[in-house]
Amino acid sequence: MSLWVDQYRPRALDDLHYHQGLSTCLKALAASGDFPHMLFYGPSGAGKKTRITCTLRQLFGPGVEKLKIDQRVFLTPSRRKVEVNLVQSNFHIEITPSEAGSYDRVVIQELLKEIAQTQQVDLNAKQRFKVVIINEADSLSRDAQAALRRTMEKYMSNMRIILCANSTSRLIAPIKSRCLLMRVAAPSREEMQSVMQYVSKRAGFDLPPEAGDKIIDDSGGNLRKAILVLEALKMQSPDLSGPLAIAKPDWETYCHKVADMIISEQSPARVMEVRQKLYELLSHCIPPTVILKTIAERVVDRVDEAIKTDIMHWAAIYEVRMRIGSKKIYHLEAWVVKVMSIYKHFFYDMDMSSFD
Amino acid sequence: MSFFKPQAQTPKAPPKHAVDPELQPWVEKYRPKTIDDVSAQEHTVAVLKKTLTSTNLPHMLFYGPPGTGKTSTILALARQLFGPENFRNRVLELNASDERGISIVREKIKNFARQTPRAQTVSSDGKEYPCPPYKIIILDEADSMTQDAQGALRRIMESYARITRFCLVCNYVTRIIEPLASRCSKFRFTSLDNQSSSSRLMHIATAEHIAVDPLVVETLISASSGDLRRAITYLQSASRLSSSTSPPTPITPRDVQEIAGVVPDDIINDFASVLGIDTDQAMSDTTPKPGFKGIRSAVKEIIREGYSASQVLSQLHDIVVLHPTLNAKQKSQCGLIFAEADKALCDGADEELWILEVGLHVSKAVS
């Protein structure tokens, strides 16, 4: 038994619930036989992947749903072996090159050339080309992106590339200019409501609109999260009426606890306690950026208007440093200390002014 | 023999099966065939034409922003020098998608460089080509070659100069090591002016039989900022989209903007007004300042819509810099934070945090 997210995922372009304009575009492109390279971008949970699989189905028919998982080993120039997982059907291959870390260039070069140089042998196939889906394209290294450039032009005849990314900022301009950009925005409240009503109807129960509203508030435009929450709630209380307690993920409450600790006391001893908690979070594989953002949001909600700007400013600065540096905890901690000092200064100054 | 002609004229296509011209990207289809076709770049073209008559070529280094015709120029020149038949064995084209470490330089490039050029074959299309007695190695995107690989080229370039000419093509001349750069004659390619881009775009549009409004061409040029390849790709995508709907609709400037990933003006203007920059002259100062909360929710909205941060920032930057009533100090303060944010985004920073950061700073600077 699969999750509702997968079970009720639309399979064809016609079944998609929102962004109808986009769907008609994709359908027309798939039918025209003149399919370009594409770049899907948008926030997570907006339906990028779903749209890509629907487009593939439109292009090649139901054969694309027969998937097999394959593991390939690539040899880097320095004789290191890199293992990469591939999901493939007869018509497409899906890779996540960021798995290979800094060796993603090798993976891109080898794999794409191999695919590009083989032709579709199945005469009954609807299209002459194969499709390569590259996930998390925004985490590709510069080298790997440069390697894509010419390949995309040269092997246009038997390969199309679909890139899937959260944002286009990190992609180099030559790649963007070679793709048809498809922006998949997060669904609006009404659209989310209608999708959730649809899912609950398919699952055989009625969703009270108030409960739906509450879930939407919590999900922040992420439809996948909304449906997961819906399923979890349904498991907890089958009738979905009355007050609903949407369980926050553990790490989120934990982050909030850290934020509260920062505000309630500013001392070296408290910094030590916070450090312990941060280590705990990091060791549970919560991405440091997420930790920083969650804590910052919470802190900002609870402090005076005057210092909000400063706190966000330093959060932004330390976030960049964290990316460039290698030890995440240093920068997280530095930010915590910075926030404490801003907070204390603010109150100290206030106290002094009241004495005058 | 006439059967082979069309194939011979597109030697870039894989020889096993020629690409259907219908499906070819227009960028490839309308690549200039002769160097006279190259848009703008009068100076470079004039110099190169002289070398065409004297058939003597120096080592060359082409540099300039993307989409200005560097690769097209050298390919067209090589084709005019050698003709389609000789082109294949006289020209070696390597680019960033090929492995170009030091080992390749030592083996592949060196081997090719030291071959004596093969005898000139008679060209099938009956034209006379100068076909000078040397080969050309084109190193496209040479700025992504490692320092070591570039170093290894130094000696090769000199010792085989009699029979091989190198042409390095790159965006940033500063990333080519000095010894290499000094061995080449440099050609700078400038960004295309609007006049020549628009005439080229119009030419393609008429050749493809699509009706294009002058307003659309203007949008194409402004969205692609001097990069002709980008403009042509946008044009192709737009025409694809518009012709695939039934009935075919004409291309509108808004289509082009959506394809180019440009954020619609009203969204940017709304965001700017939240930051306290009045884009609309009619708006009075009576509207309350939205403060931190307002800015944050505006940023969240932008992120939800999925627009890219760098695009939002560059458009916001245009508004601030060209704003009629802000004073110089305010503008320069804003400029500072834009620069900071751009660097951060290049380093892969979180988009939401940085748009927020820019928003807060700009609103502080203009208030």
Automatic annotation (TrEMBL), chain A:
InterPro entries: AAA+_ATPase, DNA_pol3_clamp-load_cplx_C, DNA_Rep/Repair_Clamp_Loader, P-loop_NTPase. GO terms for cellular component: Ctf18 RFC-like complex; DNA replication factor C complex; Elg1 RFC-like complex; Rad17 RFC-like complex. It is found in: Nucleus. Keywords: DNA replication, Hydrolase, Nucleus. Residues 34-187 form the AAA+ ATPase domain. One of its GO terms (biological process) is DNA strand elongation involved in DNA replication. It comes from the Eukaryota. Its main location: nucleus. GO terms for molecular function: DNA binding; DNA clamp loader activity; hydrolase activity. The keyword DNA-binding does not apply. Belongs to the activator 1 small subunits family. This is Replication factor C subunit 5.
Automatic annotation (TrEMBL), chain B:
SUPFAM superfamilies: P-loop containing nucleoside triphosphate hydrolases, post-AAA+ oligomerization domain-like. It is found in: Nucleus. InterPro entries: AAA+_ATPase, ATPase_AAA_core, DNA_pol3_clamp-load_cplx_C, DNA_Rep/Repair_Clamp_Loader, P-loop_NTPase, Rep_factorC_C, RFC_lid. Keywords: ATP-binding, DNA replication, Hydrolase, Nucleotide-binding, Nucleus. GO terms for cellular component: DNA replication factor C complex; Elg1 RFC-like complex; nucleus. Residues 56-193 form the AAA+ ATPase domain. It comes from the Eukaryota. Its main location: nucleus. Pfam families: AAA, RCF1-5-like_lid, Rep_fac_C. SMART domains: AAA. GO terms for molecular function: ATP binding; ATP hydrolysis activity; DNA binding; DNA clamp loader activity. GO terms for biological process: DNA repair; DNA strand elongation involved in DNA replication. Belongs to the activator 1 small subunits family. PANTHER family: REPLICATION FACTOR C / DNA POLYMERASE III GAMMA-TAU SUBUNIT, REPLICATION FACTOR C SUBUNIT 4. This is Replication factor C subunit 2.
